Amino acid sequence: MIHLIVGNTASGKTTYSNKLKAKTKGIIFSIDKWNNTLFFPDKNPNHGLEWILERIDRAEEMIMDLVQQLEFSKTDSILDLGLSKYEHREKFRRFATENGFELKTHFLDISKEIRLERLMKRNNEKGATFVFEVTKENFDFMENYFEKPTIEEMDDGIIITE
């Protein structure tokens, strides 16, 4: 089973993924960790969103290969990859369909106020789910960038609210 974890910035995707891992014994793929380890050390101020998205695409090629291996060994994959855009989520739905893999979408539909409070707390405390600081400017950008899942996307999915 492939689990798509969807939610805007600071909705609790990584915390939720860890709980799902404990329940399913699945493997988490967190794009924040991949980016922070593989790409962000090389990032300079001139590198914008396109630079980041290109690297995410490369990482996801490797992740898809690993997901195929996990599917064949009957191990769940938990994809904490941001998945902010419909087309990004569609890429993984097509991948699952083409390979005959079961897929479930989990949408963390958390209010902007709660998420902003969580973000500030995470930035200050640098606790278990902290990978890198997300600025208020980045948070505000994502408010307009994020595309909420459609009703069709959530067919047989799970919606988490608080």
Fourth-level CATH superfamily? P-loop containing nucleotide triphosphate hydrolases
User: In what range is the share of β-strand residues?
Assistant: 5-15%
Total count of strands: 5
| Computed Rg | 15 Å
**Largest sheet, spatial ordering of strands:** 2-3-1-4-5
Low-confidence stretches: none
CATH class: Alpha Beta
By CATH, the architecture is named 3-Layer(aba) Sandwich
Can you count the helices?
6
Q: And the CATH topology?
A: Rossmann fold
Largest sheet: 5 strands, parallel
**C-alpha end-to-end distance:** 26 Å
- Give the overall form: globular
Mean residue pLDDT:
89
The secondary-structure element order is EHEHHEHEHHE
Write structural notes for this entry.
The mean pLDDT is 89. This protein has one domain: 3-Layer(aba) Sandwich (Rossmann fold). It has 162 residues and is α/β, with parallel strands linked by helices. 51% of the residues lie in helices and 14% in strands. The chain is globular. It starts with a strand and ends with a strand. The longest helix is centred in the middle third of the chain and has 24 residues. The chain has a five-stranded parallel sheet, with helices on both faces. The chain has six helices and five strands, in the order βαβααβαβααβ.
